[in-house]
């Protein structure tokens, strides 16, 4: 790879304005500040193929237009006198790194540049929340590397930007963005937007009175370098069993996975009521679906996982989950005040550190293994399950975080856990318990009381369950 230097991309937008950050921006701003120099963890990278026939000057013109169109890409973020603000600039320039790749090596060079750019924490008060590089091959543009701050976009917004850039490169003339973060911030402070936020905050207040303040004991101290561990499970059996249960209960597969998460946590900790924070996309209409900005906030989900069958629990999860997601757009500072009140009531014990995030864009698996989904067929699939180590970290703002990935023929589950509370060996056990719960329920009627009694068998589980109670 040969670096050819940095080119300056000038942009010209329609307005300059400073306004409060949107609720979604303020939600991720809090997490970014908490991580400090490690906030590159949130950066989002994308690779865009350049159509053949475009010159370097033409690609640079497209990238300049791209930044000009989207106000969030030319925004600085910082603390203001009345709280965090977004400062949109109408005019300015952005640096474009240009590198030359040997014939056939453009993709490898792009991957290397992406690793470099994504591994640097954004300084939001001094730099734009967007970095880009252009890889040439045989003197012609081949690949563009895009890195976004999570303060500018969430994964949905990044997808919108990918589509917009591809249309600009193809010359198909995408329509001008009609709703930008400045507009969203204004909507959230007045009229229906403000009313929605107030209703959501009241939902949090009511729900916090119904849940245990924590599912785990309190841990103090600084921890250790590999305290937080993430394991992954690749399970075709879970994909098939979840699909069977979704069709039987007439709900989404995401609802089944959420119900299983609550049931496994309840069995592990010994709690009848489980509180989870869900990652809410908050894209409810066409306007919000086209908005390039972080819209994600946490939804508070509380479910009783006592004596029902698992299928009954799945059906209750649907309505409870919908209600939680409906109340997931709010002013983070208002909910912080409510959390402070709940923390005071619990004498400091409050810890809503358990999360679930279904990151799949598809609710159904498109290429499920061929099986009759009966007991023998499902149990035969268990032999194809694979557990893998994903990574470890010294700091994470979660005790238990289960999220999904997507593959067309298998269920991908990833569990991050605080090993001060959930030992490494128990992360394996929890993922396996998740699989057992779904397979057993898909092949018969599973009573959760019985599941709880069979799960709480290790000394660690018993100890944690007794402590949590």
Automatic annotation (TrEMBL):
SUPFAM superfamilies assigned: CoA-dependent acyltransferases
Any Gene Ontology CC annotation: cytoplasm
GO molecular function: catalytic activity; phosphopantetheine binding
One Pfam match: Condensation
GO BP: amino acid activation for nonribosomal peptide biosynthetic process; lipid biosynthetic process; secondary metabolite biosynthetic process
Cross-referenced InterPro entries: CAT-like_dom_sf, Condensation_dom
Protein's UniProt name: Condensation domain-containing protein
Native source species: Micromonospora matsumotoense
């Amino acid at each position: 790879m040969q670096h050819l230097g940095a080119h300056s991309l000038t942009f010209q937008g329609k307005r300059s304005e400073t306004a409060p950050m949107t609720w979604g921006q303020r939600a991720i701003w809090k997490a970014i500040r908490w991580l400090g120099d490690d906030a590159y963890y949130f950066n989002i990278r994308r690779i865009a193929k350049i159509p053949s026939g475009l010159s370097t000057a033409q690609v640079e013109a497209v990238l300049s237009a791209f930044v000009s169109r989207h106000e969030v890409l030319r925004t600085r973020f910082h603390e203001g006198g009345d709280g965090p603000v977004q400062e949109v600039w109408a005019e300015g320039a952005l640096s474009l790194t240009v590198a030359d790749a040997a014939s056939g090596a453009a993709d490898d060079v792009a991957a290397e540049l992406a690793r470099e750019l994504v591994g640097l924490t954004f300084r939001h008060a001094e730099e734009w929340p967007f970095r880009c590089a252009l890889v040439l091959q045989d003197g012609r543009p081949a690949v563009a590397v895009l890195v976004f701050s999570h303060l500018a976009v969430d994964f949905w917004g990044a997808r919108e930007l990918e589509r917009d850039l591809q249309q600009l490169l193809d010359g198909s003339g995408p329509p001008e963005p009609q709703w930008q973060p400045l507009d969203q911030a204004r909507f959230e402070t007045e009229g229906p937007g403000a009313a929605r936020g107030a209703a959501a905050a009241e939902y949090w207040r009511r729900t916090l009175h119904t849940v245990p303040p924590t599912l785990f004991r309190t841990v103090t101290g600084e921890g250790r370098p590999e305290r937080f561990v993430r394991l992954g499970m690749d399970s075709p059996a879970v994909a098939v069993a979840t699909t069977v249960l979704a069709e039987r209960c007439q709900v989404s597969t995401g609802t089944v996975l959420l119900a299983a998460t609550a049931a496994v946590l309840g069995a592990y900790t010994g709690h009848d009521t489980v509180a989870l924070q869900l990652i809410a996309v908050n894209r409810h209409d066409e306007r919000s679906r086209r908005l390039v900005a972080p819209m994600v906030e946490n939804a508070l989900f509380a479910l009783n996982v006592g004596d029902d069958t698992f299928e009954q629990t799945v059906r209750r999860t649907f309505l409870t989950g919908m209600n939680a997601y409906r109340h997931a757009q709010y002013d983070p500072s208002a909910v912080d005040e409510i959390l402070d009140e709940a923390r005071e009531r619990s004498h400091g014990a409050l810890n809503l550190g358990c999360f679930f995030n279904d990151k799949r864009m598809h609710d159904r698996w498109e290429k499920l293994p061929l099986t009759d989904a009966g007991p023998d067929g499902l149990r035969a699939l268990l032999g194809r399950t694979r557990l893998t180590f994903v990574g470890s970290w010294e700091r994470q703002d979660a005790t238990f975080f289960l999220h999904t990935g997507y593959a067309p023929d298998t269920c991908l589950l990833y569990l991050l856990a605080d090993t001060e509370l959930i030992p490494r060996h128990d992360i394996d056990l929890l993922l396996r318990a998740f699989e057992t719960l779904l397979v057993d329920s898909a092949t018969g009627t599973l009573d959760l009381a019985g599941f709880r009694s069979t799960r709480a068998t290790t000394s660690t589980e018993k100890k944690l369950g007794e402590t949590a109670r």
